[in-house]
Amino acid sequence: xxxxxxxxxxxxxxxxxxxxxxxxxxxxxxxxxxxxxxxxxxxxxxxxxxxxxxxxxxxxxxxxxxxxxxxxxxxxxxxxxxxxxxxxxxxxxxxxxxxxxxxxxxxxxxxxxxxxxxxxxxxxxxxxxxxxxxxxxxxxxxxxxxxxxxxxxxxxxxxxxxxxxxxxxxxxxxxxxxxxxxxxxxxxxxxxxxxxxxxxxxxxxxxxxxxxxxxxxxxxxxxxxxxxxxxxxxxxxxxxxxxxxxxxxxxxxxxxxxxxxxxxxxxxxxxxxxxxxxxxxxxxxxxxxxxxxxxxxxxxxxxxxxxxxxxxxxxxxxxxxxxxxxxxxxxxxxxxxxxxxxxxxxxxxxxxxxxxxxxxxxxxxxxxx
Amino acid sequence: xxxxxxxxxxxxxxxxxxxxxxxxxxxxxxxxxxxxxxxxxxxxxxxxxxxxxxxxxxxxxxxxxxxxxxxxxxxxxxxxxxxxxxxxxxxxxxxxxxxxxxxxxxxxxxxxxxxxxxxxxxxxxxxxxxxxxxxxxxxxxxxxxxxxxxxxxxxxxxxxxxxxxxxxxxxxxxxxxxxxxxxxxxxxxxxxxxxxxxxxxxxxxxxxxxxxxxxxxxxxxxxxxxxxxxxxxxxxxxxxxxxxxxxxxxxxxxxxxxxxxxxxxxxxxxxxxxxxxxxxxxxxxxxxxxxxxxxxxxxxxxxxxxxxxxxxxxxxxxxxxxxxxxxxxxxxxxxxxxxxxxxxxxxxxxxxxxxxxxxxxxxxxxxxx
Lengths: 369, 369
Prior knowledge:
2 copies of one chain form a homodimer. Chain A is an alpha/beta fold.
């Protein structure tokens, strides 16, 4: 089974191809883009150790030369130092504006490689081959890239749309359970953004997805990519509608900055954030009661945390301080927090008039004191 | 006298306003853009010492807050370290996506401030107030920004179109003679790109320009900006026609990398590069003889170097090595150097089929051994 999602961005449009065993069969897709040029593959040690051979067989005959650039695993690679080191190495090797960058790895590789491609000679071509559920379903769509600074995550970055995204679901079978759950946090979000039909499908197919069933994975990744693609194509530069893909993220970012980054996976935080957004939607009266219970049950079935304690038991979660973190979110404007709320499944909207008490009550309901 | 150049880039279009005493009278232009928001002014110690008061009077009543960020003077500021330091300081101060950056200084300030604005939260709004002839006539048009790496100049950068550019010609009266000559190197280039009528005007008005006559400055800066704007609006991302604004630059970059950066002003190198491009155009038979003599005389009248010795007498200029530098120019593709040549004044074109001997002969004619 193979699915294709078209990301409609005028002259920057591209395809996302989703299929099993895609890397070894990617020549059809890559050859017309690479056209014999030189390629810089950016990856991390784990991915390259396990999958470099697959890529090598495809790249050898269709490139004039390709080199592997490894960045360290984990969020620490999203730093100025790592970016500068990568750019410096590429330039010293003679990478020029005719070359292409392939981001081959998870979200961190996608961010650093995408940022490097955006800045080299003010932008060279980029191909994304994401290797985690999280990056396939979410971070590979929309052209955003960024690094972290001491003030927060993703505060410095740019936009560069790839020429193509290849989502090989076979590669996901080696993903640890926690990484699958983390990716599923974003999928949960897309299910809620889409509507009841998709959410029912997810309820039915949850165990197939978590057990790496290829058809189920292709379908659910298509759903996520298509949802994000349709939003991004209306608002590439994140000036309005793209805010909707932040459902759950105002909460999730507060959880992460309060506990300290790296204590738990981003997607797990998003999953719980989505539940909190549902609770807040009910509390404010926008959304009928009951929907969030269903979402909570689904997250629980997926093995995802449904309370702050199960997200990270060593943290004492203080609601007032979590609220202060939200006040300092980069999307908070003039002290008004921008929440994405739901009227019902498939009907999200941005609301910046939620009163503090309701947010604190919501945080209490998921375990904050 | 006031002139306005419209840079037509669809939703990213903007105006360049050129007038004397513009900074103290800029409220009309800045207020609708700033709308009471917070502003980060990036400048260097010299400019801020001399002109901060003018800007302060305009900004105080129309911003909620404004802060001054100083970067060091000179090309060394175009580094990763300086960029990182600036971004870090802005973020620590709470600069968010609602804030604007004003680049207030010469080309270096424009590059670093523009790059910082492009990367902060993936792009916040930018206003340019260039304070040198070079930056008013050239680097403030077209949205390019960059820093240098150990491999070369401007190899890492991005695009960010400003909301407005304010070119205050009064500020140029304090510019040292060598800075005026350097800016004039780019003006010379635009004169040749435009045609005989403009070049005749420049021949007549040269001494007025060099003596800071305001009307002559407004007119010649308008001519330069308009020429670049019309090219950039056809090719914002530098994929084709924008190459024409590189007339003289393949030579100029080779002179600079061979001698070592900072030995002489960029614009002086460009002026001599333009002469070399003219000589090469005649040698290849594309351009009738005589035009370059006229250009050379004009450059000489402007007090600009018309030989490599007068550009930098301490350097032994070796033509073979200069040629090798051109081979490694970032615009050289597959070993083919892209020269911008002239058929006549006002008729530039890109040529990548010039044989090596003709280039070496040209270099010899301007003093290389």
